[in-house]
Known about the structure:
A: alpha/beta, six-stranded parallel sheet, about 60% helix, elongated, B: mainly alpha, 5 helices, flat, disordered C terminus
Amino acid sequence: MTPTAVLLSLCYVVAASLFILCLRGLSGPETARRGLVLGEVGMFIAVVGTLLHKDIIRYDWIIAGVIVGSAIGIAISGWIPMTKMPERIAFSHAFGGLASALVGVAEYSREAERLTHFKMGALGLEVFLGFLTFNASLMAYAKLQGLITGAPITYKGQNFVNVAMFIGALVLLCFLVFDPLHPAVFYAICATGLVVGITGVLPIGGADMPVVISLNNSYAGLAACATGFALGSQILIISGALDGSSGFLLSLLMSRAMNRSFTNILFGAFGTDIAPTQGPAVTKAYNEATVEDAGAVLKASQSVIFVPGYGMAVSQAQHAVRDLAASLERRGVDVKYAIHPVAGRMPGHMNVLLAEANVPYEKLFDLDNINDDFARTDAVIVVGANDVVNPAAKKDPGSPIYGMPVFNVEQSRSVIVLKRSMNPGFSGVENELFFQPNTMMVLGDAKKTLLSMTAELKDGGH
Amino acid sequence: MTAEWVFNLYVFMLATFVGYQVISRVPPLLHTPLMSGTNAISGISLVASLIAAGSDHRLSQILGFVAVTCASINVVGGFLITDRMLRMFRRKPGASASTPPPGGAPAKQLEGVKAQ
């Protein structure tokens, strides 16, 4: 080893430990920012060290790429609103996947004659996972953004086609491992990755997006890992494994929070065949209430719990929630927030939005920490949440969400539901909560309703 | 003498276990910053992209350039946006101090809290 190579390896060792410390910092909000700085330092050391690498003989393309990429990165992170965070995360997984895939293609075109069996296998996995992540993340982005319908898209034999393509790619890869000098086969693997990325996400509904985004996170990490195996670079293997295990753990947590298995989410096409025989519930009676009615209930309440859902993000109502909470607190009301793990479109979505609106994080409670409090609570305000407050998940074995842990919202004295209309939510499941005698439905845009409720509290006085 | 790829498999296995252990300590409160933070870290494929872009092979340079661009977006954007998010998570001075912070981390006063 040359002295430069030793120095480079040491840089990578330092960077890898800093990455682990960075993630460790994220175990609490007090240490998180300091941890992130360690991660930034680690990345800086790794990148600067790499510039010493013996295989780098020219810097023009590198400088151009870093400048363009950094400019785009700064622009996106500076201007994107917090409500668009799921879209931005989906997009960044696409970039990560594409970077790994292109590195794989470049490596193959440069080194095809010198590849060992093992490296060829790693390269094949890298481009397959990379292109799959790229398209799957773009699909997730398109579904989140409403460019294509958020509802599952299914056709006959869909699962068979997807599995067949997956296995086909593996067969091609085995062939290539034994005889790497077949560019056509290599590019066929790339193409299959791209196609599976699209067809694999089609049958997954919008409400399952937290799992899809976490899985893409995991795949992007695994693609980086495969890059590491192909290039013999331990820093890539370590960082990719950290990213991969993080995405995997998050997907596990998300599917557990929905009481559904991975396979069910990937192949289930949830929300399609909910038979219309579920009953003509639309004609059932419900209490439509005005803002004044809701205000009267709040004025008589000592304790209030907010349950935010995806609807809060859609109508960007987090600041309005905070304002209403503030005016309730000024009246001496005890205010808490109940955050379901799968509320919103990505893990932790609601927490970030409420943090943006300056809600102190001690007031945000997980399912387990708040579910016993509902019975002792005067009023619950459901802001654009649906499945996570559906009592059918506890009572109705025929419901598609049966078994999912949900908030015991119906146990509180009165429930105020802010909802755009009486249409069933994203999953297409009817919600019995809306028809209970102690539930008031305030229909309309959540943000407007919240603002008028705040005004109502001020006007009404004590 | 262990082959390089076996050695690398060991590295992968250990890093996966460490990652799993470390990340299972992250509270749901910080799951979005976790995703965007690990995304920035997985921008480490920038290292591989640099080598592709800096080679003497034409196709490799072009693909490497695009890869460097994508990876830089993730590294720079990922760290900036994670920091922007983490800055928002704070305790209100004077807010009910009866409940301990989620995650059970000892409530040390560190630089991260008092910034802004």
